[in-house]
Design a protein that fits this description.
The complex is a heterodimer of chains A (186) and B (157). Chain A is mainly α and 186 residues long. Chain A has 2 domains: 1-97 and 104-115, Rna Polymerase Sigma Factor, Chain: A (Orthogonal Bundle), CATH 1.10.1740; 119-186, Orthogonal Bundle (Arc Repressor Mutant, subunit A), CATH 1.10.10. Chain A has helices at residues 2-15, 19-41, 44-61, 71-93, 122-132, 136-147, 152-159, 163-183; strands at residues 96-98, 104-106. Chain B is mostly helical and 157 residues long. Among the domains of chain B are: 3-54; 128-157, no CATH class. Chain B has 7 helices and no strands. In chain B, helix 1 (3-17) packs across helix 2 (23-32). Chain B is elongated. Classes of the chains: A mainly alpha (186), B mainly alpha (157). Chains A and B meet through helix 2, helix 3, helix 4, helix 5 and helix 6 of A and helix 1, helix 3 and helix 4 of B.
Amino acid sequence: MDAVVDERELVARAQEGSEEAFTELIDRYHERIYRVAVRIVHDVDDAQEVVQEVFVRAVQHIGRFDFRASFYTWLVSITRNAAFDALRGTQRRGRFKQTEDGLDRYSADGVGDPVEASQESETAVKVRKALLRLKPRDRTLIVLREYEGLQYEEIARVMGCSVGTIESGLHRARKRLKTILGDERP
Amino acid sequence: MDEKTTDRVERLVGLELDGRLDEAARRELDRLLRDGAAVRVRDEMVGVRELLRRAEAPALPPLLRDRIVARVAVARDERATTPLRLAGGGTLRLVQAITVAAAITLGATAWVTSGGAVRADDQLEHPRTVEDELRERTDDDGSIAPYLEWRFLGAER
């Protein structure tokens, strides 16, 4: 309860314009928001831009946050929108093509850095490539449920749809993921 | 095990993993799991979850926190110092800007009290429209087949 009260007070102070309070919110959540962003957009540079954009939008609209959901859920909602904006921009520029076989390919100018595969374990690379083969919406559902532990109701709020749609969406995404990972088994 | 039963097992196991099985669904899953093929399906789904969780979290780029703080500070400064500009290029002075803002606020207040308020995009709630349903059920490649299936067949993909 203390942590909840503490956060409500922090957000309230940030709404009153306290830069210190908002910076504390950045400190609390930027790492989790980055992880959500990079798992959705699959690009370190884009994910960093997304995270910065998330907190800019948050500080601009924090006055409208009404405490009906957790502050983190609200940030994730902004992250989802910003990440999808980034994906649309990337596709428009032709910088990144999600092909049928799921491998990330780049246009001739080679702009953009993928997540550094050399720094990841084999498992992480396998999971990342499998997630990449999902449609962005399905990937987001998996990220929010499996990695962020959001409940269906929270995910529904983030995605702007019903709990029933989330249930069906997760079922579809997991089914697809199982097929993808099954295809890659030796 | 046929495809339909496999799909049903997958759906129920998903709910089980998420702690959302009710009593009736629990009994149904227990019944289905008497079939070894269903047990294998469940093991595969549990295996997928374990694989996802074994993958380490992406490393945080250095100095990201500082970049965020700096970017937010710039955004705050831009809001505080940018004067209002008219389409023709003229710049309102502060007193004029406050006057305009006050007029807008009065108009907005009248609009709010008449029931026309909206909230920030990220908290927008409105009666669901056909456009909402279509947007939600359109594939990323632009196909509206999921919407048509939902609308006319009552099926969710």
